[in-house]
């Protein structure tokens, strides 16, 4: 479908990539973007991510039929409260947040009271790079986007949001907000926590200066995501703190079993540990390659 006006709130990697994809694929007659800093306007205009960039929230969302929240999670509720008087009844609001339970519970009632539809989204796409200069029109190509409707979601609004994500190149699946948060905690939030701790520990100034020289491709691959936005990941950890604390406890328990095997020089246990990890990852690679290949 052709949107009349799409507004992107927050023009960083995801917001900028959405703007580029929407414009490249001609999905909207007009794309507006909201930024926090005046200095960001010129950069966004140079990158061509929107038709109009502004710091004026009312101007940005006025007459928009689709608004996409691409800000850190902690900013979403206050932004929605501020924009409520300017939203067109019947408009659709979605987001790209990595946690859905708190976002849906915070935003859906506010928007429904205004006659505006909220449908949560989470595109499983991104990079350790931040800022609009890292934006790419193909960022969502063959990515999975989770859409998280609730019992009060309007069916047509959900359909339009799913159609939008498919139009920018993603494949969509539906999950409840709480199921999304549990699954993504294991596959995204926990790995980021582990990568951050690994980077902090290995590169600690307490170690000899030669330590960094011996960190090669394995270390780079394992810790790449630790270079992500600290503000964003702080908000994610806080918003999903119960799941993350519980899964970290399980993970630590698994590491303690591995520690015991190492202390005992248990060859059989170590062999089984590495074999199981390889088998599960190799099977996952085959499965995901098959599920994303063209039919």
Which structural traits does this protein have?
295 residues; alpha/beta; Rossmann fold; 6-phosphogluconate dehydrogenase C-terminal fold; 2 domains; six-stranded parallel beta sheet; three-stranded mixed beta sheet; 11 helices; globular
Description:
- The protein has helices at 13-24, 38-47, 57-61, 73-83, 101-113, 155-167, 177-202, 217-223, 230-239, 241-263, 267-292, and strands spanning 3-9, 28-34, 52-54, 66-69, 92-95, 117-118, 120-123, 144-148, 171-174.
- It is an alpha/beta fold and 295 residues long.
- The protein folds into two domains: 3-175, Rossmann fold (3-Layer(aba) Sandwich), CATH 3.40.50.720; 179-264, 6-phosphogluconate dehydrogenase C-terminal like domain (6-phosphogluconate dehydrogenase C-terminal fold).
- The strands form two sheets. A six-stranded parallel sheet has the order 3-2-1-4-5-6. The chain has a three-stranded mixed sheet with strand order 7-8-9, covered by helices on one side.
- Strand 5 (92-95), helix 5 (101-113) and strand 6 (117-118) form a beta-alpha-beta unit.
- The longest helix has 26 residues, at 177-202.
- The protein is globular.
């Amino acid at each position: 479908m052709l949107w009349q006006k799409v507004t992107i709130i927050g023009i960083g990697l995801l917001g900028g990539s959405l703007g580029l994809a929407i414009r490249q694929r001609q999905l909207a007659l007009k794309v507006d973007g909201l930024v926090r800093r005046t200095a960001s306007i010129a950069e966004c205009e140079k990158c061509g991510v929107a038709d109009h960039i502004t710091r004026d929230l009312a101007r940005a969302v006025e007459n928009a039929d689709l608004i996409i929240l691409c800000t850190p999670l902690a900013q979403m509720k206050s932004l929605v409260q501020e924009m409520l008087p300017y939203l067109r009844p019947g408009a659709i609001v979605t987001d790209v947040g990595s946690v859905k339970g708190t976002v849906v519970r915070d935003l859906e009632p506010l928007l429904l009271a205004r006659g505006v539809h909220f449908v949560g989204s989470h595109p499983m796409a991104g990079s350790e790079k931040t800022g609009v200069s890292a934006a790419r029109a193909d960022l969502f190509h063959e990515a999975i986007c989770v859409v998280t409707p609730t019992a009060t979601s309007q069916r047509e609004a959900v359909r339009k949001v799913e159609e939008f994500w498919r139009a920018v190149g993603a494949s969509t699946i539906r999950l409840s907000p709480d199921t999304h948060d549990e699954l993504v905690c294991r596959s995204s939030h926990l790995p980021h926590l582990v990568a951050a701790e690994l980077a902090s520990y290995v590169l600690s100034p307490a170690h000899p200066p030669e330590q960094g020289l011996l960190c090669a491709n394995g270390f780079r691959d394992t810790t790449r995501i630790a270079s992500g936005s600290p503000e964003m990941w702080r908000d994610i950890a806080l918003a999903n703190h119960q799941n993350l604390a519980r899964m970290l406890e399980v993970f630590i328990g698994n590491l303690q079993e591995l520690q015991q095997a190492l202390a005992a020089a248990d060859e059989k246990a170590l062999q089984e540990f590495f074999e199981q990890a390889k088998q599960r990852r190799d099977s996952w690679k085959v499965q995901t390659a098959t599920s994303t290949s063209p039919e």
